[in-house]
Design brief:
The N and C termini lie far apart (116 Å). It is built from six helices and no strands. Helix 1 packs parallel to helix 4. It folds into two domains: 1-113 and 152-181, no CATH class; 183-230. It has helices spanning 2-24, 30-67, 70-149, 152-177, 183-238, 252-261. 89% of the residues lie in helices and 0% in strands. By secondary structure, it is mainly α.
Length: 262
């Protein structure tokens, strides 16, 4: 159930990214859309800055008014005097306590530092051993898993990436063809180009077929003539030669037939 969800999410994310990119990078209206988006962002930031400035001004005015009242000034003076006395008392006690604490902390820190250094070395050694053990076990497990499943996870991620890229191209194509301003014109151009390509392909195959038929007929005619000539030459070669009469005008059989007729 996990993989169908991942594939569906990759499909949706890829389609959304493709649609957004084509909407902003449209070759015809993308520049205007980007300018409109930047203008809207600048207007929102300007309004937010104006509201924040007005709020700060109101707060500053309220603080100024409260600070200039007699009651607030009297309370501030008393608080300052009390704070000054408390500060001096705390400073004297704190100085002595700080010295004692510094001495004690220095001794404790040195002892803890030595102990911590020893523990850190022990933990580092144990972590190195555990790392080596885990690496060896992981290598063995990976080899067994690879032989068992045939790197199915790798193929899954490759297919998921291909699905995301395909959905990105699909979303970009959908926005390009169904744009509210230029979509109808682009669809008409696509139909015209497709029709032209199909017509040109059909003409190419028809011309090629006619050329092949004509060439085949010519080759067959030449082959038939050559075979006829070869047959005539063969028959003439095996035909016995004809004998001539003494005068050399007619063959002997023809002269014989003429004398018998007389």
């Amino acid at each position: 159930m996990k993989r169908p969800v991942e594939d569906g999410l990759s499909l949706l994310v890829g389609a959304g990214v493709g649609m957004a990119l084509m909407y902003l990078l449209d070759p015809d209206t993308g520049s205007n859309r980007r300018e409109q988006l930047q203008q809207a962002a600048r207007e929102r930031l300007a309004k937010a800055g104006t509201a924040a400035s007005a709020g700060l001004e109101h707060l500053h005015d309220a603080v100024d008014r409260a600070a200039h009242t007699p009651t607030v000034q009297l309370l501030a003076a008393r608080a300052a005097e009390a704070a000054k006395g408390v500060y001096h008392e705390i400073g004297s006690h704190a100085s002595a306590a700080a010295d004692d604490a510094h001495r004690q902390a220095t001794g404790v820190a040195e002892g803890l530092q030595s102990k911590i250094s020893g523990k850190i070395d022990e933990l580092r050694d144990k972590a190195s051993d555990l790392k080596d053990t885990a690496r060896s076990r992981y290598g063995k497990w990976l080899n067994r898993s690879t032989l068992a499943i045939g790197r199915d996870e790798d193929y899954h991620y490759i297919g998921q990436t291909a699905c995301a890229l395909g959905s990105l191209a699909l979303g970009a194509g959908a926005v390009y063809l169904f744009d509210p301003e230029m979509g109808a014109k682009r669809r008409a151009q696509l139909v015209d180009r497709t029709t032209y390509a199909v017509r040109e392909t059909g003409d190419f195959f028809r011309k090629t077929g006619r050329r092949l038929v004509t060439r085949g007929r010519h080759v067959a005619r030449n082959a038939a003539e050559q075979a006829k000539d070869k047959a005539a030459e063969t028959v003439a070669y095996f035909r016995p030669p004809e004998t001539e009469n003494a005068s050399g005008n007619q063959p002997a059989n023809e002269s014989t037939q003429a004398s018998m007729g007389t």
